[in-house]
Amino acid sequence: MESRIDRIKKQLHGASYKLTPQREATVLVLLEHEEDHLSAEDVFLLVKVKAPEIGLATVYRTLELLTDLKIVDRINFGDGVSRYDLRQEGAAHFHHHLICIECGTVDEIQDDLLGDVEKIVESRFDFAIKDHWLTFHGICKRCKSDVDDNVE
């Protein structure tokens, strides 16, 4: 985790920002909860444990900065809540999500499955794609197996 923080620090420095203690606390929370798709309020509550002096506005500003620098991605799963997801290092694009409409779990797809689609869109519509993300809504394998188990 330390080397990841060092790389984020370099990204910040490259954009003329410092890794302040408040930003570091926020980044640490995001790293420690990388699988959780935290809202700003969730991040704030977890940061407060590490650094009680940090305010909600500081966390919001930090998340906005990290989003602008493409260190994190802001995502919305259709429930009106913005969540923050660390961008996978070296990824050209945001990763995709599978959202279960039964239990609400969110699974990630790290593979970039839309390369051919991007090429078609760029050429057909003369559109310069900078990023994409895709969310599938359905029933996860855990819920499907629960239904299958109950049918027998």
TrEMBL record:
<dbReference type="Pfam" id="PF01475">
    <property type="entry name" value="FUR"/>
</dbReference>
<dbReference type="GO" id="GO:1900376">
    <property type="term" value="P:regulation of secondary metabolite biosynthetic process"/>
</dbReference>
<comment type="similarity">
    <text>Belongs to the Fur family.</text>
</comment>
<dbReference type="InterPro" id="IPR036390">
    <property type="entry name" value="WH_DNA-bd_sf"/>
</dbReference>
<feature type="binding site">
    <location>
        <position position="140"/>
    </location>
    <ligand>
        <name>Zn(2+)</name>
    </ligand>
</feature>
<keyword id="KW-0804">Transcription</keyword>
<keyword id="KW-0678">Repressor</keyword>
<keyword id="KW-0862">Zinc</keyword>
<dbReference type="GO" id="GO:0003700">
    <property type="term" value="F:DNA-binding transcription factor activity"/>
</dbReference>
<keyword id="KW-0238">DNA-binding</keyword>
<feature type="binding site">
    <location>
        <position position="103"/>
    </location>
    <ligand>
        <name>Zn(2+)</name>
    </ligand>
</feature>
<dbReference type="GO" id="GO:0008270">
    <property type="term" value="F:zinc ion binding"/>
</dbReference>
<dbReference type="InterPro" id="IPR043135">
    <property type="entry name" value="Fur_C"/>
</dbReference>
<feature type="binding site">
    <location>
        <position position="132"/>
    </location>
    <ligand>
        <name>Fe cation</name>
    </ligand>
</feature>
<feature type="binding site">
    <location>
        <position position="100"/>
    </location>
    <ligand>
        <name>Zn(2+)</name>
    </ligand>
</feature>
<dbReference type="GO" id="GO:0045892">
    <property type="term" value="P:negative regulation of DNA-templated transcription"/>
</dbReference>
<dbReference type="GO" id="GO:0000976">
    <property type="term" value="F:transcription cis-regulatory region binding"/>
</dbReference>
<feature type="binding site">
    <location>
        <position position="143"/>
    </location>
    <ligand>
        <name>Zn(2+)</name>
    </ligand>
</feature>
<dbReference type="InterPro" id="IPR036388">
    <property type="entry name" value="WH-like_DNA-bd_sf"/>
</dbReference>
<keyword id="KW-0805">Transcription regulation</keyword>
<keyword id="KW-0408">Iron</keyword>
<dbReference type="InterPro" id="IPR002481">
    <property type="entry name" value="FUR"/>
</dbReference>
<protein>
    <submittedName>
        <fullName>Fur family ferric uptake transcriptional regulator</fullName>
    </submittedName>
</protein>
<keyword id="KW-0479">Metal-binding</keyword>
